[in-house]
Amino acid sequence: MSTDEQATEAQEIELRSAGCDVVVQEHGSGASRARPALLRLISDIGAGDVLVVVRLDRLARSVSHLLQVIEDLAEKGAHFRSLRDPIDTSTPQGMFSLQVLGAVAQLERALISERTKAGIRAAKAKGKLPGNPGLRERRPEALAKMTAVQRASYGARVQSNLNEWLPTVRRMRPDHNWDDIARVLKQRGVDWTPERLRRAVKWLVRERLADPKMLDRASPQLPEDRLMTLVAGISQSNPDLSLRDIAAQLERLHERTPRGSAKWSASSVKNLLDRARRLGLVAEALIP
């Protein structure tokens, strides 16, 4: 719902009638992508589940945001359905409608770009400066509005790819420092600086989407303890990795073995994993 004054009963009745087992409510602007309840819902949803809304505008106010949500669901093996719109990703007809929406979104972006360029050219021809006059004049209300927009935009960026990096951070913090975690993520294709990563986690904690303990100071560790938790973090972030895969990743990270060698063997990794397993850091054995 957009405001606290709006009632949710009608939507809930319609959703229950459609067979929904769990109904999630969220109050806030649908135009904003900073949607904590929606984020938690997508995080908890499982393969085979269906996210159902009464109307598309109850989920998103832009086609691009809608497509992003549906893409996140598809990656988890879940589907999406709108009761009053021809969108049901579990059916061929629904997928066709989704493809049409994608084409509309692309056209919309192109038209907005063209209108923006035309407006700038017209303003310059009249001798006007492009941009917001309030920002140029440093008006407090304009600056406050810009700050709010920037915060909302930052929150949307942080939430756009959470599944790619947050599980690893949760497993490794606060046992490891931000540099170690950034290096592990880089090997998985998520190239963030330690400071950018820490800032994103701070935002999640502030929005109550992450455990505040993730921001605790990392305890000093003995070299072998640090390697053990690093290997445990790598294996837990990607359980499909073999011992040799982890060894190769440690070499790419320029980590040295407990004996100081630059070359890692599967047995060296196994020794650290066995120790981590005894401490409860790793649940399942890896295939050599």
Automatic annotation (TrEMBL):
Keyword DNA-binding listed: yes
Keyword RNA-binding: no
SMART domains hit by this protein: Resolvase (SM00857)
InterPro entries: Recombinase_CS, Resolv_N, Resolvase-like_N_sf, SSR_resolvase
Protein keywords: DNA integration, DNA recombination, DNA-binding
Domain Resolvase/invertase-type recombinase catalytic, chain residue ranges per copy: 1-127
PANTHER family found in the cross-reference section: DNA-INVERTASE FROM LAMBDOID PROPHAGE, SERINE RECOMBINASE PINE-RELATED
Full protein name: DNA invertase Pin-like site-specific DNA recombinase
Protein species of origin: Aminobacter aminovorans
